[in-house]
Design brief:
This protein is mostly beta strands. The chain contains 1 helix and 9 strands; from the N terminus they run H-E-E-E-E-E-E-E-E-E.
Length: about 180
Amino acid sequence: MRSRWYLLTLVAIAGLAVLMLAQQKQPLSPPGEASVKFDDGKTITIKYSRPSMRGRKIYGGLVPYGQVWRTGANAATSLTTDANLDIAGATVPAGSYTLYTLPGASSWQLIINKQTGQWGTEYNQGQDLARVPMKVGQLPSGLEIFTISLDKTGPRAATLKLDWENTTASVNITEK
């Protein structure tokens, strides 16, 4: 009877150890990806990290108003496109870019930056390709995890959306 108890205890401890190791390996801000494919087969892909609120005030707190934000966590958020784009009136040639944002209490700007491959906090304003205004609104309910989406709105059009906490910011994209 005692050896059975000992064996069950060892199995339980081993199971807990495996569970703890699995939890430790999950990053606080896991990778995310948003992609859209136009009717002609050309694609736009955004790769980013997805931080969670974890009880924090986000906009106007963790992400201050009036300061450039890496638009996610960890490495810089990347945009890669096979197509030449018009993003809210700015011409963006096919290629790779970094996305930043400039959040405000009532208005936001999307920053398309030519520098790529850097850590998210390594922002060089001299490398900006364009800054465009974003539409800002309220989400119907709070969102715990930062989410970027590319929603197809036509054969050669999409909307880029940034959703987190109680805020949504968006901009229209069309293929040129």
